[in-house]
Design brief:
This protein is of the alpha+beta class and about 350 residues long. It is built from eleven helices and 13 strands. Helices cover about 40% and strands about 20% of the residues. A hairpin with a 7-residue loop joins strand 5 and strand 6. The longest helix is centred in the middle third of the chain and has 44 residues.
Length: about 350
């Protein structure tokens, strides 16, 4: 292990922190003195029988509480890491981990979050093999050339096969755009020059890990974080536009087919060519949901039919408006209105109309 120390310059705030050339705080490190400590860990340092325990302790030291699911049929496990960070280290602070590993599944559940409430993000940059990641009801596979982002403050799963190699970059939570903090995009937009620059900078830093000074590491880290944040802001803007388009298309589709009782949120997502989760998020940005949108349109049409089509019974109105039964219609109606469908019809009917 090699470590270099540097006394942090005084920032404009008066606190001793590692700053960039413009005097800003080095994010997440308000300390009087920091040391750069590249750390290497390898399961080859211990016996075959101890390698899984070694890997478990080593990864937890870098990332906090996790469960590990190793390949039970394998007789050995190989893994090694190169860790770049400043000391004293905390799991919420910036670090880069370059790892190669045998097959393993990492799980962070609600119980571990309560014991170890680390709220930061992990930028995932696969180099060899695939990273299968799942969080908040979504699951994606990241391949070389793709980047992903996970929240460490929510339950998650990360899995890969034998010989996988990747960089994992810890991004402090306080720098993330508000829309990204709780639900970061598991797969970031591809073919982005900014994200390509992030990957290139990460590669250069890991390639030169033994010769970096603490000052250089702080400078590069600050710039890398800035680029990541700006890329995420662009990702958010692009995502907002996409969600607006999905929401508009969903409203048009619901208007066209809400009378069909077989139309469900899953059907809408399939017709729109997106996942159900994307549809839910798109409509959530407009304070509604697929089910709520269908119910609102169907209730609106039922009200119109109750008033304008006196020859229909309440049950007929329910079916014609897309409800599978009169009971389902009446429950939906009661959730929105205080008077019954029959009373509403009597109150709003015009003279001469016959009630059914």
């Amino acid at each position: 292990m090699r470590a270099t120390a540097v006394r942090a310059p005084r920032c404009a705030t008066g606190s001793a922190s590692l700053c960039d050339s413009r005097g800003r705080l080095y994010r997440g490190l308000p300390v009087d003195e920091v040391r750069y400590e590249p750390v290497t860990g390898s399961t080859r340092e211990v016996s075959t029988a101890d390698r899984r325990d070694f890997w478990t302790e080593h990864v937890r030291a870098n990332h906090g509480a996790l469960d590990f699911r190793f390949d039970s049929s394998a007789t050995d496990f190989l893994g090694n890491t190169h860790v770049l960070r400043l000391a004293p280290y905390q799991p919420t602070r910036f670090q880069i981990i370059d790892f190669t590993s045998g097959p393993v599944r990492y799980v962070r559940d609600a119980a571990q979050l309560r014991r170890d409430p680390v709220c930061s993000a992990r930028l995932l940059i696969p180099r060899t093999g695939e990273l299968a990641v799942a969080q908040s009801g979504e699951a994606v596979r990241l391949r070389p050339g793709q980047l992903g982002l996970m929240s460490w403050g929510r339950p998650m799963r990360l899995e890969h096969g034998d010989g996988a190699r990747a960089w994992i970059v810890t991004i402090p939570e306080e720098v993330l755009p508000p829309k990204i903090k709780d639900r970061p995009p598991l797969r970031l937009r591809g073919h982005s020059a900014m994200l390509g620059t992030v990957a290139a900078m990460t590669k250069e830093m890991t390639s030169n890990r033994e010769t970096l000074t603490a000052w250089e590491f702080g400078q590069l880290s600050s710039h890398l974080i800035d680029i990541v944040v700006k890329a995420l802001i662009g990702e958010t803007m692009s995502q907002d536009r996409q969600y607006d388009e999905i929401a508009a298309a969903a409203r048009a589709l619901v208007a066209a087919c809400a009378d069909d009782p077989t139309v469900t949120p899953s059907y809408l997502a399939e017709r729109l060519g997106c996942s159900r989760r994307q549809l839910e998020r798109a409509l959530a940005s407009q304070q509604t949901s697929p089910a709520a949108l269908l119910r609102a349109i169907r209730l609106q049409r039922a009200r119109e039919r109750l008033t304008r089509e006196p020859y229909r019974t309440v049950a007929d109105v329910a079916f014609a408006s897309g409800f599978l039964s009169r009971g389902a219609f009446e429950r939906a109606w009661a959730s929105e209105f205080t008077e019954s469908p029959g009373r509403y019809r009597r109150r709003t009917r015009t003279p001469g109309q016959l009630e059914r």
